[in-house]
Amino acid sequence: MSRKYFGTDGVRGLYGGPVVNEKFATQLGFAATQWLRGPGERRKITDGTPQPALERRNTSGIGRVLLGRDTRASGAPLEAAIARGFRAGGAEVVSLGVLPTPALARAVWLSGARMGVMITASHNPAADNGIKFFGNRGLKLTDLQEEQIEGYLDAAVMLPEPWLESRPGAVEDYLAAARSLLPHHALAGWRIALDTAHGATCVTSPVALRTLGAELVAVGDAPDGRNINDGVGSEHPELLAAKVRESGARVGIAHDGDGDRCLMCDERGGILDGDELLAILAVHALTTGTLDKQVLVATVQSNLGLDAAVAAAGGRVVRTPVGDRYVIERMLAEGATLGGESSGHILCAGVSPTGDGLVAALRVLGVMLATGRPLSELRRVMAKFPQRSRALTVREKRPFEALATLTAAVHALERELGTRGRVLVRYSGTEPKLRLLVEGPTEDQVRAGLSDLEAAARVDLDIVDPAG
Question: The pTM is what?
Answer without folding.
Answer: 0.86
